[in-house]
Write a structure and sequence with these properties.
By secondary structure, this protein is an alpha/beta fold. The protein folds into three domains: about 170 residues, no CATH class; about 35 residues, no CATH class; about 190 residues, Rossmann fold (3-Layer(aba) Sandwich), CATH 3.40.50. The chain is about 35% helix and about 25% strand. It contains 13 helices and 16 strands. The strands form four sheets. It has a seven-stranded mixed beta sheet with strand order 12-11-10-13-14-15-16, sandwiched between helices. A four-stranded mixed beta sheet has the order 1-7-6-3. A three-stranded antiparallel beta sheet has the order 2-5-4, with no helix packed on it. A hairpin with a 5-residue loop joins strand 15 and strand 16. The two termini are about 50 Å apart.
């Protein structure tokens, strides 16, 4: 991530380019402590993964050792002696089998070839071609794996020739150059387990899934009107102008009444539309739960609803996109953007104003976040005609908030997307701003309307 230039952010103390530690004369102990803690944490995780005993196995083995020493050997209790020897021996036997199987599997994983490039939409199962060379007939042992990088990818193992085949389903868009897998070999009782790390060079690309937002009528209804021109129409108006007849003109366009009066052949021609010369830009603000908003942005770009000379930008993507392929790259890259970092919406809108754009579509997550204050301030001071769009996944705007005991016992939001309360919190800073705002549902394709109306009604409603 690019560092801010000197003079843009900071206190101005010290020389240009000097770090805060040099300016104040104090040692920069923060980064050192953070690096030391990161190394200790990484070492602890590696030790935990390679230790063949899980927490239940350690507890069982420790309990067996205490019972053997205190009652089995101390009081010569033959029942306790036999039970502890059998229990401890079983744990040690399972640990030995797991270690041997993990060593053999580690050698086989190193011989696997690099994976092929993968590309699919989020939510769509994809067979990656990865085969885990582990026979399923081994007694008392089982194996499973997950993706460590990229994250938010569900892995399902299916039976195949030569091992187990991998089928993945991504929950969030993104791109990665390598796939890191955590392969765990354990026993059926859960007392022993060893985790191996396998890395393969394979380009992975997950794009947002449009779902029901691909319906042309829905998006044209959102973008049609005085604010935006018809993207599918020709830049021509009604046939109210006229010119002299030329060879090849249709006789239906000849003004016969004018010819009867003046003996001059004139034909109707359409006037040149002026409103279609305005250009539209669009920007995606990345944040928590922004996957439906990214899908809406992709649908708008894929269907060509931005007109001619459009421009697209997104958080996590430095250049501006002007084609469908570049816009899709920007959408995929925005999935890896830090949701806690600053948004580039203000710089994008300022550049669009200088380049002569007239309209701007801003796609925002359906919940509050660090980006909210900056986005509302940018919309408030820009001269562009702004349309703020957001999308949710199967959550209607009028859904009442469940009771506390229902939220405690049931998982109301499986996919991690905010409910109506989060949508209201997001829309509150946009109250009174000169912009349009529309929320849609990706699951059903239904337009939920302006979420600011709920906030305005809640503020006008007298408190009980």
């Amino acid at each position: 991530m690019a560092q801010p230039a000197v003079g843009e952010e900071g206190t101005g103390a010290g020389e240009a380019g000097a770090s805060p530690a040099v300016a104040t004369g104090r040692p920069a102990s923060g980064p050192l402590v953070a690096r030391a803690w990161s190394r200790v944490r990484r070492l602890a995780l590696t030790t935990r993964d390679l230790c063949p005993l899980t927490l239940p196995g350690l507890l069982l083995l420790g309990l067996a050792a205490v019972a053997l020493r205190r009652w089995g050997m101390g009081r010569l209790d033959l029942v306790v002696l036999a039970a502890t020897v059998l229990g401890g021996g079983l744990v040690l036997l399972l640990a030995s089998l797991v270690v041997i199987a993990a060593l053999v599997l580690s050698l086989r994983l190193r011989r696997l070839p690099a994976g092929a490039p993968l590309a699919t939409d989020c939510g769509s199962p994809l067979e990656t071609g990865f085969r885990l060379p582990f026979p399923r007939w081994l007694p008392l042992l089982e194996v499973g794996w997950r993706w460590e990088s990229p994250r938010q990818v569900a892995v399902e193992a299916t039976r195949a020739r030569g091992g187990m085949a991998e089928v993945v389903t991504a929950a969030r868009r993104g791109r990665a150059e390598r796939v890191v897998r955590q392969v765990t070999v354990g026993d059926v009782t859960g007392l022993t387990a060893v985790t191996l790390t396998s890395s393969s060079a394979s380009t992975v690309r997950f794009a947002p899934r449009c779902g029901a937002l691909a319906r042309l009528a829905l998006l044209e209804g959102l973008l049609a009107g005085d604010d935006l021109s018809d993207p599918h129409g020709a830049p021509l108006g009604d046939p109210v102008d006229m010119r002299r007849y030329a060879h090849g003109d249709s006789p239906r366009l000849i003004l016969w009444k004018v010819y009867a009066r003046s003996r001059k052949l004139l034909v109707r021609v359409p006037e040149r539309a002026v409103a279609t010369r305005t250009r539209t830009c669009a920007y995606l603000v990345a944040g928590h739960g922004d996957e439906p908003a990214a899908a809406l942005a992709r649908a708008v770009v894929d269907l060509g609803l931005l007109g001619l000379g459009w421009r697209f930008g997104a958080d996590g993507w430095r250049p501006s996109a002007s084609s469908g392929a570049e816009a899709l790259d920007a959408l995929v890259a925005s999935g890896d953007a830090d949701p806690r970092g600053p948004s580039g919406l203000a710089q994008f809108v300022a550049r669009a104003e200088r380049d002569g754009y007239a309209h701007c579509l801003v796609f925002v997550p359906p919940g509050p976040g660090p980006w909210l204050a900056t986005a509302a301030a940018t919309v408030a001071r820009t001269a562009l005609r702004t349309l703020v769009l957001t999308a949710v996944d199967g959550v209607a705007a009028d859904t009442p908030r469940p009771a506390w005991w229902r939220r405690l016992l049931f998982e109301a939001d499986r996919d991690g997307h905010p409910v109506a309360a989060g949508l209201d919190s997001m829309a509150a800073p946009f109250l009174g701003l000169p912009c349009r705002m529309v929320a849609v549902d990706r699951a059903s394709g239904r337009v939920l309307g302006d979420p600011r109306l709920r906030v305005a009604l809640a503020q006008r409603r007298p408190a009980r």
